[in-house]
Task: structure prediction
Amino acid sequence: MDSEIIVNKEKLENSPLEINYLGDRSLRQSAKRVSKVDNDIRQLVRKMLQTMYTADGIGLAAPQVTVQKQVIVIDCEPDNSATPPLVLINPTIKDYSNDTCLFQEGCLSIPGVYLDVKRPSTIEVAYKDENGRPQTLQAQELLSRAIQHEIDHLEGKLMVDYLSTLKRDRIRNKLNKRI
Ligand code: ZN
Result:
């Protein structure tokens, strides 16, 4: 039996899960593959979605909430209640386009920082959905970017890693002062 992920896109007063910020060790670890997509995983997905909506994000990876599992949630239209969010479990990028594009990214773990990151424009990604079914998806534009950004999180990689060391240190100093 499929259990549908029903999520209210409303923003809550208190986020169900706490988001880790740059400097937290859990953001630098590799996430483990999910062996079985069960109700515990679906419960995690629900909490991650609600955390993402509450924080005004369009993507969240499990290591950002201290769960070292290969689980990602994405919603490029968080304000549109008619579009369902995307859940990617054990995602693998199967193909990249040769052309790249530079676009500004943000990250819920690095609040207030927006960086231009160069990435392949189009990707093909294989993953399991919230019911454990294998899926493949061709993604472009914002969705392609969001998926690549979140898959980086599963490998302990952050958008600041695309910067020069100098710029990265400057951002880290700025954040250390604030957090
Ligand atoms: Zn991020």
In short: The chain has a mean pLDDT of 92. The radius of gyration is 16 Å.
